[in-house]
Structure formats: C-alpha cells, structure tokens
Amino acid sequence: MVKGVRLRHWRFMPSGFAAAALSVMIIAAFLLGAGGARMIVKGKATRKSVLMIVAALVLIGNVLIWTL
C-alpha cells in the first residue's frame, strides 16, 4: 500500500517518493509537449514531434491514473 494522507476512503495524496515521481512526470510531459509543438511550428521532424506529443499525453494519463 502506498503511504499518503487519506482524503476519502478511496483517494490519497501521495507523499515522499510518489509525489516527487509525479512531479517529475508532469515536468517531463510539459517539456515533451512544448518541444513537440515547437518542432511542428518550425516544420522540423514531424514524426518525432508527434511522438513527443503522444509521449506527453501518455505521461499525463499515467499521472491522472495514479492520482484519481
């Protein structure tokens, strides 16, 4: 079981390593999304930029699953 402060019977607030991991994932998702968007605007490496945006969406989805 993950340690954390219970908000309701099924929710928790991550603490310690879990909170740090979620924070790093959100920062990485933001950087991947911004980098992919920047590459699309500049017209460089379209396939790589789309994959970067998809990776950002997957990271955000993982964070939502962990926190909801």
> How many β strands by DSSP?
2
Residue-averaged pLDDT, rounded? 85
Question: Would you tell me the structural class of the helices and strands?
Answer: mainly alpha
Q: For the largest beta sheet, what order do the strands appear in spatially?
A: 1-2
Per DSSP, the total helix count is 2
Distance between the termini: 16 Å
Largest beta-sheet details: 2 strands, antiparallel
Shape: elongated
Extract low-pLDDT stretches.
Answer: none
Helicity range: over 70%
N-to-C SSE string, H for helix and E for strand: EEHH
Structural Rg: 15 Å
Strand content: 5-15%
What would you note in describing this structure?
With 68 residues, the chain is mainly α. It has a domain at 31-68. The chain has 2 helices and 2 strands, in the order ββαα. The chain has helices at 17-42, 46-67, and strands spanning 4-6, 12-14. Strands 1-2 form a two-stranded antiparallel ribbon. Helix 1 runs antiparallel to helix 2. The longest helix has 26 residues, at 17-42.
Summarize the structure.
This protein is mainly alpha-helical. Helices cover 71% and strands 9% of the residues.
Write the layout of secondary structure elements.
Layout: E1 4-6, E2 12-14, H1 17-42, H2 46-67
Antiparallel strand pairs: 1-2
Helix pairs in contact: 1-2
